[in-house]
Amino acid sequence: MKQKLFAILLLIVIIFGLFYLSNNNLTAAQNKKPAIMVINIDGEIVVNGYGIFEKRGQNRTGGTSSTNIIRMLEFYSKDDSIKAFILEIDSYGGQTVGKEEIARYIKRMDKPVIAVITNKALSSGYFVAASTDKIYASESSQIGEIGNTFIYVNRNRGGQEQVCHITSSSYKIVSQSDCKGFDYLTFERLRSYVGGSHELLVSSIAEMRGLSKPFIENISNDKIMAGEEALQLKLIDEIGTTQDAVTWLEKELNTKLWIIYLRDMSSNQT
Description:
Shape: elongated
CATH architecture of the largest domain: Alpha-Beta Complex
């Protein structure tokens, strides 16, 4: 009798627990309120990986998958109640392909996408921010290395050690003698790859931010600046937080917006 009573009580607790969780994880489509979806981009930007569903401040993977970011943007763009997106960025860079995939997709989107730099936006992290409609950052944010690219090779091929490190700040002056174990043609391919990637970054950021290529080139490599300096250089648009971005979007869209953090939702809802 006691076991039966316990089983009934346990069932009641489970039912109420599921009801509570479902009501606290409702999407905007379910509650029919106009909403903003906040998506985090943390750590290294990679092509494949995880990270966006982990709780805020609990990113165990140390990186964010461009594939997952695009998948979430695509999925929630179809939700009529999602009126805009905010990307909270704290990234020191990442893979070239990953950042370009995200940026290209954002540029094709019909709904507003705002970047909020919560801590760092370096290299690829800034590139993604530059592709959005507006960039916010705190005064203490670190922004820079916006055209920084490099290649580092340290391997053994056929019993011969090959070591080469070429960066966007050195590719114009580096020589074959600086790279151990490489023939001239292979060395030139490595150097050209870094130079080409750097030139593409500079021209793309200049176009996205409406700035000149010489200006971006001048600050593109090692320079890291705080939010106020980045604002003066027009690399960001406002000093502010996610709430400031929400306030701006509400004025632009002329409606009160419900804020949904993707990380506060369970992954099985997608």
